[in-house]
Structure formats: C-alpha cells, structure tokens
Amino acid sequence: MALSLVVLSSLLTAPVPAPVVIEGVVTEQSSRWEDGIIVTRSIVEVTNVLTGSAPAKVQVRHLGGAVDGLGQWWSGGVWLVPGERVRLDLAPSGAEMTVVGGETGVHQLGAGTERYVRTTTASAMPECPQQMKYPLFWNVVTIPYVIDSAGSDDIRPPEPAFAAIRASFATWENIDRSYISFQDNGLVDNVKIGYEKSGPNSNAVKFIEEDWTRDFRALAITLATFDCNSGEIVDADIILNGEDAVFTTNPAVDVTKNDIQNTVTHEVGHFIGFDHNTDPESTMYSDAAPGETKKRDLTQDDIQGAIDVYEVGHEPEPAGCCSGAGHPGSPLALGALVGLVALRRRRARA
Ligand SMILES: [Zn+2]
Prior knowledge:
Layout: E1 20-34, E2 37-51, E3 57-63, E4 65-67, E5 70-74, E6 85-93, E7 96-99, E8 106-107, E9 117-118, E10 142-148, H1 159-173, E11 181-188, E12 204-208, E13 220-227, E14 233-241, E15 247-248, E16 258-259, H2 260-271, E17 274-275, H3 300-309, E18 317-318, H4 331-337, E19 344-345
Parallel strand pairs: 10-11, 10-12, 12-14, 15-16
Antiparallel strand pairs: 1-2, 1-6, 2-3, 4-5, 5-13, 6-7, 6-8, 9-17, 13-14, 18-19
Zinc ion binds next to helix 2.
C-alpha cells in the first residue's frame, strides 16, 4: 500500500518482505538539515521482535522533520511520534535501520476517516516543537511553479507530459468556489528540489530518472516546507519516480503504464496541503494501479476540502494591508518567502 501517490503494487513485483519487523515505543528523535533535506533519526525501544533480529534499541533513519522553525513533510513518508507504540517493517542500513515501504511500513492504532485530511505542522516527522498544531496552507491566491525541462524519459517529445502536469494543476484551480490558482512559470533546466533558507527556491515538478533514493514503489512524492509557527507553506516540490515507474499520457493505450495526470493531480493535492484520504475514490487515496485515471477528477469531498481551506471571499489580504488578522508567521520563514511568491497576509478564518 501506499507511498505517496501511488504505489506500484500491481505494476512491480509484490512488495519486498521486510527483513526485520519489530514492535516498540518511539523514545527519542533528532533532526538536522542535510543538503536541503531534513533527516530525522528516531530511537525505538524494542518490545517484540517479530521477524529477523534487532537490538534492544533501534535507530531508525527517515526523511522529514523540523529544524530551526521550519518543517519538512514528505507525502507517504515515515511519521514517528515520541511516546507512540508502533510495529515497524525495517531493513538494516549500516548501523541504522530504515522503514520498508514508507508510511505503509509504520503500523499504528486508529482508523482513518472518509473525509478529506489536511496535513498539519504535526505531520513533520517529528512534528514541529510548537504546542499548537496548525494545518498547512498557502498564504497566497496564486502559487507559482516550474517544470524541469527534461520532462520524462518515457514521453518523447516531452510536450504531452508538460501538458498533463499543467492539466493536473488546472483541476484544482478550476473549483468554482475555491480561489486557489497556479502560475506556470515555464521550464527550468536541472531544477533544484528542496528548500534553501538563503534561496533562491522554486516550486518544482521534476521526473527523477536515476538514483531515486525514496521508496521504489512510490510513483511520486511531494515535499512541502512550511513555517512551524503558522502552517504556512513556503515551498513545495513534486518528484516523479521515472527510474522505477513507466509513465504515459495515454493510459487508454498503455494500460500497464502510469498516467502522469492521474499521478500529478494527486500530488498537487499534497502540494496545497492535503494528506491521504481513506476513500478509494478520492484523488487523495494513497494507491493507484497502472492505467488508472480516476484521480484526474476530484470527488465532492476533495472539492469540499479545497473550498473549506481556500474559499472564494476569504482570500488572504495583500501584505502590509491589515494588521492583526494573520497568523504570526516566523520572521525566518516569511523572510524566505519574499521574492518567491507575492507575500500576503492570511485573513483570519472563523
Ligand atoms: Zn500521496
């Protein structure tokens, strides 16, 4: 099941069994920046070893977390919370372990909901240090993005792939009662993924054709960087797994391939702050079969989510307009935002 969008459960061979399965309690975490990416290490005190062997304490390395007031969240990524009891599917990686299958390798209690789910500042892994849990949101009406000019190795010439990506953004933009919109800033060579506090940054969509370092079953992953003090997203990138997956823009013909628009429409949902929905019909459902196209269209619940968060008539005020109404975003993150997007203060929501 589940990584980011979409998992290739029926495209690839069956998921690889985890060599180590443990139950335990997450006790400690530390996070640090490594080349634009926040890397977290969690200590899990092992209570049961179900498969393989493991020491009494296991150090689990995973991506995402919060450092210096900024959080990073990977769709489909591993989310471990100190104090929580979990069963983990693990693989040794040097002296550490990594979780097999991303979020699907973390087993917790608790049922899902059939309603749309917002990513929050608690979704950073570990969550932001603040007591408050803020849902993620963009504080602008129009979000700019660029596409890496290399496109996909599977689509030559590349224009249909670019068109499918633009159509994916348009689906979320075309919701009548939601103001959220996107500005296509064109193609960029070798666009950088991640977020640098000193900038420059861009919200990018990029096919990774080799050295894909995330879960091989993930078709695509969205990385969001946000302000822990408000939930305001300052940067978001979508990467597609061109190494392990074969993409198409014509799934009616290529039924064994993965539809770019189906994939990216899901990822754009992450890009604007939504997490996975347990409804298999939702665009935000975590799995997709090869040839699938139903995520191209939003369910009524997906649409309602966009309206609730970005409702027409509740647009953020222009920067400097109206004091007191917005979230108290940290100077660090807001500073990083200037020049990236038109900075606006968010209207207080009821
Ligand atoms: Zn996803």
